[in-house]
Design a protein that fits this description.
Elements (H helix, E strand, L loop, with lengths): L7 H12 L3 H14 L4 E7 L5 E6 L24 H5 L10 H8 L1 E7 L7 E6 L2 E7 L5 E7 L6 H6 L3 H18 L4 E6 L2 E5 L6 H9 L1 H6 L1 E6 L4 E6 L12 E5 L2 E3 L2 H10 L12 E6 L5 E2 L10 E2 L2 H17 L22 E2 L7 E2 L11 E7 L3 E6 L2 E6 H18 L5 E11 L2 H17 L2 E4 L4 E8 L7 H13 L4 H16 L9 H12 L14 E4 L1 H7 L5
Parallel strand pairs: 1-7, 11-13
Antiparallel strand pairs: 1-2, 2-6, 3-4, 3-6, 4-5, 7-8, 9-10, 10-13, 11-12, 14-15, 16-18, 17-18, 18-19, 19-20, 20-24, 21-23, 22-23
The protein binds adenosine-5'-diphosphate and magnesium ion (MG).
The site of adenosine-5'-diphosphate has 23 residues, from helix 2 and helix 4.
């Protein structure tokens, strides 16, 4: 085919594809418009995962009737004027792409009223064309209603996940904007159920309370730092409040919600040595810097930004959080200050009794010989002796393997051993987690978790799988909900969930074990299918054969 310039309708759809990836993208663009219009109240409603209906109402400045149709033209914006403006953007939107993109992939109605106009105006668009237009009274502000999203885009519709997954994306997104704008009163209703409501009183901790619950809100530490480049503020978790994934990290740069590996690393760097492997902090971090210090025009959905001085921003954030953590007394350090080559180490704790600590494998597994436990090294590795040399066993990896095999075996036989909790645990779920829980109740019951609603986004955990008795239940539930939210086809995700449960249920590195516990652990390890590797494929043990030892010591050459 010869080269030609595409028709504007095709161009619009291509652009829409970049801006509007899924229903939550529509919600994002509409909320940003409301915020740019100075709204102090934003009500969001979605049905059917946002495919049936998305409605965002605000009390912002409104759009003059004479400009309403123009707002749906590509590159029509009231927010920037010239090239200079593009260099120092302070609004969330600036490309004039959102409304035309949404109108290109859905049916849109908009009603709006400014403070000066005698009456408001209304516009109805289908496939990007105006099909209805009239004057309509309403209070000051704007309401955009989006229906039948992607109806004419079967490929995109097919790509969307379940209603619950899309709802949970929307819930997460609205939560993020609520965190970014505590002075704005947000409400979210999903399939007619109230999901989130903030007061708009400007107190970030209160928003955190609404989203993550009162325990988190009470324990989060205040961050407040200013250096020559940036101001860093917000809330960050004490090390004892860790989570098993990064879903609880929110970053806002000049009030724009961004996903930034740089900021994530800077935050996690501040927690280095304070969290166990696989744990992540919770944080809501606001960074303000001069508009010229960043480029927001690098991503179609404006979800990423580029800092002019990345390194400086990195250390501003790291330092701001480190400073807060340094002032926080840490009740019980959970990690052992041990890293290879650092010079810090603990001497091996040897078993002093003379009792022959032989462990006899009950099944003749091909893999492990009979091992005699000698002791524990840095509360992390079990030292054992076998017929052919020395074994160093990673207690966490070994226990993970044991639990993983058992979990899968119990699931396969549909006989999950359940343990009721004498003292039920209450957890508070975020709006997103609540959506996932609602969709996954049966799975969770099958896996051995009994979780009951307790009102106001609180839930009571009454029973857990017996194999998880050692685990931090709140972390497990959050990991589980995270896995369930992103689940794809049946098989891999069951394995993934089993992996995650095993990881959380397993003895941690740094935990002191008694002799009997170590013997039991090795005995159980011997009965697994693959005692030499943990479910993630990492080795559970290092073997130094007698031959290797003799060679290392120069006894033989
Ligand atoms: P952009 O936000 O990049 O300017 P949009 O397509 O999202 O582009 O919106 C186009 C224009 O419509 C905006 O510049 C603004 O003037 C107007 N607009 C859109 N939504 C609202 C709203 N909720 N309140 C007031 N004005 C709005
Ligand atoms: Mg916009």
């Amino acid at each position: 085919m010869p080269i030609k310039v595409l028709e504007s309708e095709v161009v619009a759809k291509i652009a829409a594809g970049e801006v509007i990836e899924r229903p939550a993208s529509v919600v994002k663009e509409l909320i940003e418009n409301s915020l740019d219009a100075g709204a102090t109240q934003i009500a969001v409603e979605a049905q059917g995962g946002g495919v049936e209906l998305i409605k965002v109402s605000d009390n912002g400045e409104g759009i003059p009737a004479s400009e309403l149709a123009l707002a749906f033209h590509r590159y029509a914006t009231s927010k920037i004027d010239n090239l200079d403006d593009l260099e120092k953007i302070s609004s969330l939107g600036f490309r004039g792409e959102a409304l035309p993109s949404i109108a290109a992939v859905a049916e849109v109605e908009i009603s709006t009223q400014t403070s000066s106009a005698p009456i408001g105006s209304y516009l109805h668009l289908r496939k990007g064309d105006v099909v209805g237009k009239e004057s309509r009274a309403r209070p000051q502000g704007t309401t955009v209603t989006v229906r039948r999203l992607f109806r004419y885009f079967p490929a995109r519709l097919k790509f969307l996940k379940s209603v619950n997954t899309e709802n949970s994306h929307i819930a997460h997104l609205v939560s993020q904007y609520a965190l970014a704008f505590p002075e704005v009163k947000f409400s979210l209703v999903l399939d007619k159920r109230p999901s989130l409501r903030t007061t708009g009183n400007g107190d970030l901790r209160e928003v955190v309370n609404e989203i993550y619950g009162s325990e988190v809100a009470q324990r989060m530490l205040k961050v407040e730092q200013k250096d020559s480049l940036a101001k860093v503020g917000g809330l960050t978790s004490p090390p004892s409040l860790a989570r098993s994934n990064r879903n609880y990290l929110s970053f806002f740069v000049n009030r724009r919600w961004v996903r930034s590996p740089l900021l994530t690393r800077a935050t996690e760097e501040a927690y280095r040595g304070l969290l166990m492997d696989g744990q992540h902090p919770m944080a809501v971090i606001n960074i303000s810097l001069p508009a010229q210090e960043l480029d927001v025009n690098v991503h179609p959905a404006k979800a990423q930004i580029k800092f002019c001085h990345e390194q400086t921003v990195f250390s501003s954030v790291q330092k701001a959080i480190e400073e807060v953590l340094a002032k926080t007394p840490i009740a019980s350090p959970k990690t052992v200050p041990f890293s290879v080559g650092s010079g810090q180490w603990q001497s091996p704790r040897m078993i002093m009794d003379n009792e022959p600590a032989f462990v006899v494998a009950q099944l003749p597994t091909m893999e492990l010989p009979v091992l005699r436990v000698l002791g524990q090294l840095v509360n992390t590795y079990i030292i054992a002796e076998g017929p052919d040399g020395l074994y160093l066993i990673d207690q966490h990896a070994a226990h993970e393997r044991i639990l993983y095999d058992r979990i899968l075996a119990q699931w396969a036989q549909k006989e999950v051993e359940v343990q009721g909790l004498l003292q039920p645990i209450t957890i508070e779920l975020s709006p997103r987690e609540e959506e996932t829980l609602r969709a996954s109740k049966e799975f969770l019951a099958e896996f051995g978790f009994t979780i009951e609603p307790f009102g106001n986004r609180s839930y009571v955990i009454r029973a857990i799988p017996a194999l998880m008795a050692r685990a931090n239940i709140i972390e497990i539930i959050s990991a589980l909900l995270d896995n369930l939210a992103s689940k794809q086809s049946p098989n891999p995700w069951e394995e993934k969930i089993a992996q995650s449960l095993a990881c959380h249920g397993a003895i941690r590195a740094g935990q002191q074990l008694g002799n009997e516990e170590m013997r039991e652990l090795i005995k159980q390890l011997e009965q697994t299918k693959q005692p030499r590797a943990c479910p993630h494929g990492r080795p559970t043990m290092i073997h130094l054969s007698s031959h290797q030892l003799e060679k290392e010591f120069g006894r033989i050459s």
